Every structure is written in C-alpha cells, then in structure tokens.
Amino acid sequence: MVDLTKFDPFEMVDITGKEAVPRVAEAAGRITLKKETIAAIRAGKVKKGDPLAAAEIACIQAVKRTPDLIPMCHNVPLGSVNASFTVGEDHVEARCRVSATYKTGVEMEALTGVSVALLTVWDMVKYMEKDERGQYPSTKITDIRVIEKRKGE
Question: From the candidates 3, 8, 50, 123, which is the catalytic residue?
C-alpha cells in the first residue's frame, strides 16, 4: 500500500544519481481526414502550403519545448529528432523518433512531437474538413502511442 502522507505530487523525480545512457523513443498517431482533403495534400493544393512540411517543423519545435509544456518533465539534451509521415486513403500517420544520451527517457518528447504534428496537419486543412455548420464531423486524431522505447543500446 502506498503511504500518501509521504507523497508530494509537485516534485520532479530525482535523477541525480542515475547514469546517462543512450535512449530512443518513437511515437505514432493518426489524423482521419476526408478523401478530398487527402487528395489536396497529395496534389499540393492546400491553401496554407504543405501540411506535412509544416508538421515536420512543428514536431521538432514541440519536442524541444516539451519541458515547457509538461510541468514535471526533465529538460533532456536531445541528440536527434526525426518526423515522418505516411499518407493513407483517409488518414495521415505521423511518427516522431527522438534520441538522447541522458539520465531519463524521451517518451514524452516523442509523444509531444507527434501530437503537435497532427494538430498542425489539422490546422492546415481545417477549412476543407468543416461541414456547413462549421463542425468537424469526421476529422479525428487517434492512436497516439509509444511504439518503441530503448535504453542503453
């Protein structure tokens, strides 16, 4: 049983004594879009520009800003960030892979990157996704998850 009298919910985990080791995390997620929106992305006909190029930049920026967004997240000195996208028949899948040599993992960074990448795609194409009432009946972001985590390899 956990003794809640000794639990401080506003304390960062102490990693002082941990050894810095190579770490990798990859996250993925998807945004479901109308077939017409997918066709516009493929044809380069989105008014705001290339949503995947913008999402790649947004992903990298988000990874770098993760400790600013998640209060108890450590500021990890990043080694690399990679964003990639697959355009399906009715969706875009985003992946974010983050590596660092540090005392704590980079899962939150990868999850933040993929989330912001998908939000950026939505922002770029939202004018095509709205119905006559200005709603988004079929647009959705789903399946955001960590698909790989490695430590010390």
Answer: 123
Structural domain spans, the chain: 22-151
- As its CATH architecture, domain 22-151 has 2-Layer Sandwich (3.30)
CB 19 within 8 A of CB 103: yes
pLDDT per residue as tens digits for the range 104-140: 999 999 999 999 999 999 999 999 999 999 999 999 9
Alpha helices in the chain (DSSP H): 35-43, 51-69, 107-129
Q: Which two tokens stand for residue 69?
A: 């967004």
pTM above 0.70, yes or no: yes
* Residues ≥6 apart with Cβ < 8 Å to 131: 137
Q: Is 143 a catalytic residue?
A: no
Please tell me the distance from the alpha carbon of residue 88 to that of residue 91, in angstroms, as a whole number: 5
